[in-house]
Amino acid sequence: MENGAAPTAKPVIVAIDGPSGTGKSSTSKAVAAQLGLSYLDTGAQYRAITWWMVDNGIDLADPVAIADVAGKPEIISGTDPSAPTITVDGVDVAGPIRTQEVTSKVSAVSAVPEVRARITELQRTLATGAEKGIVVEGRDIGTTVLPDADLKIFLTASAEARAARRSGELKGADVQATREALIKRDAADSSRKTSPLAKAGDAVEVDTTELTLAQVIECVVTLVEEKRAGK
Ligand SMILES: Nc1ncnc2c1ncn2[C@@H]1O[C@H](COP(=O)(O)OP(=O)(O)OP(=O)(O)O)[C@@H](O)[C@H]1O
Ligand SMILES: Nc1ccn([C@@H]2O[C@H](COP(=O)(O)O)[C@@H](O)[C@H]2O)c(=O)n1
């Protein structure tokens, strides 16, 4: 370096997509923490706007009613991977957005184009503002939100593995019912017209069925490092 300063790494943008329960959040958070990057859970944003709609009595069977109020709530995501946060109009909703009610209703809200336009804008602002780079996880990050991401990963796993993981998390919830709920949500997310759940053509697919979480994290960290090294 001419002035003796250490070279600063160019911010790296990593998009991680995939169906429910494939390990997107756990992997993205750990990869971001390990590499000193920001982290954005875009599912939490869709859950937050859904929570607000439920709290305000919006008819979720009516896409026009959803579209009419899509711009109203102020949603703020904190992107520190060691302590990600999410607020709606200043209220911490990290807990309430994980209820069964929100989980069962989020696909109806996230299918509405006006909701997607609003949330996509928030996501792009956060991604471009991340000084050192960011890991963004969701369903349409590689295809729509950040099509120029430096690295795109698409995580998959069998429905059985995903249901077993989720049931363990929900302290013994019925595996069969969990499996059906995951499949139903994935079908809704994959079949919506606007920005469906899909693998980008240039994404690296990682099947996590037989991998431990630590192995998945290691695999993604290696892919990011290779990308940074220009390999
Ligand atoms: N490779 C793995 N092996 C075993 N368990 C895993 C693995 N990856 C993730 N898990 C566990 O599976 C559960 C779901 O993972 P996670 O929340 O990261 O998935 P997700 O893809 O973000 O799901 P969703 O899209 O529904 O938010 C968590 O309890 C997590 O610890
Ligand atoms: N990029 C995204 C991310 C999420 N969604 C919708 O949010 C739901 C909840 O996502 P989780 O990751 O928290 O499970 C998901 O089922 C989608 O409906 C989305 O549309 N796009």
UniProtKB/TrEMBL annotation:
Residues 14-225 form the Cytidylate kinase domain. ATP binds at G18, P19, S20, G21, T22, G23, K24, S25, S26. The keyword Manganese does not apply. Keywords: ATP-binding, Cytoplasm, Kinase, Nucleotide-binding, Transferase. It comes from the Bacteria. GO terms for molecular function: kinase activity. Its EC number is 2.7.4.25. It is an enzyme of class 2 (transferase). It catalyses: CMP + ATP = CDP + ADP; dCMP + ATP = dCDP + ADP. InterPro entries: Cytidylate_kin (IPR003136), Cytidylate_kinase_dom (IPR011994), P-loop_NTPase (IPR027417). It is found in: Cytoplasm. Belongs to the cytidylate kinase family. Type 1 subfamily. HAMAP family: Cytidyl_kinase_type1 (MF_00238). This is Cytidylate kinase. The lineage of its organism: Bacteria, Bacillati, Actinomycetota, Actinomycetes, Kitasatosporales. The gene is cmk.
